[in-house]
Write a structure and sequence with these properties.
The protein has six helices and eight strands, in the order βααββαββαββαβα. By secondary structure, the protein is an alpha+beta fold. The protein has two domains: 1-59 and 128-147, Alpha-Beta Plaits (2-Layer Sandwich); 63-119, Alpha-Beta Plaits, CATH 3.30.70.
Length: 154
């Protein structure tokens, strides 16, 4: 399964991954409209961590052993049988946030307006997730598990 990996040495903490993620998950998929006109505003499913000179993006790892799925009371969190990605069914989500507590990476977000969890969905329908496609330094890589280490080190 393909996942998003981070090349920390290439990340400059610009946050464009968040901007494009928010736009991709908005109703209009237009950056200006998504930020200025949509209400409630969509949430980015990615976070940028910064500590001095070091920065990197953080999003769902789509774990093979997903504690968020195991902890979900309603079955809203699940592994997509076709893609292998960890997904959320917003219709089943009750906003209890148990999945957020269970995630060892802190990669899930509360959508307080919709009272559901928001998480990386790898931008279904796109060949490459919006965060990866729009990273100016190519700090984000979309790759198969076995090839990721080689791509991230280069």
């Amino acid at each position: 399964m393909k996942r998003v990996y981070v090349k920390e040495e290439a990340c400059m903490g610009c946050g464009l991954c968040r901007v494009y993620c928010l736009a991709e998950h908005s109703r209009t998929r237009d950056i200006i409209k998504a930020f200025k006109r949509e209400s409630p505003r969509s949430l980015p499913r990615i976070r940028v961590e910064r500590n001095g000179e070091v920065s990197f993006s953080l999003q769902c790892r789509h774990c093979d052993e997903p504690w968020c799925v195991y902890s979900c009371f309603t079955g809203a969190m699940y592994i997509d049988e076709v893609t292998g990605a960890v997904a959320v069914d917003a219709e089943k989500c009750i906003g209890c946030w148990t999945c957020i507590v269970a995630c060892p990476y802190g990669a899930l977000t509360r959508d307080r307006d919709r009272k559901v969890v928001a998480k990386c969905d790898l931008c279904p329908g796109n060949d490459v997730p919006a965060c990866v496609a729009n990273c100016p330094n190519e700090a984000l890589v979309f790759a198969e598990d076995g090839k990721a280490g080689q791509l991230v080190r280069n």
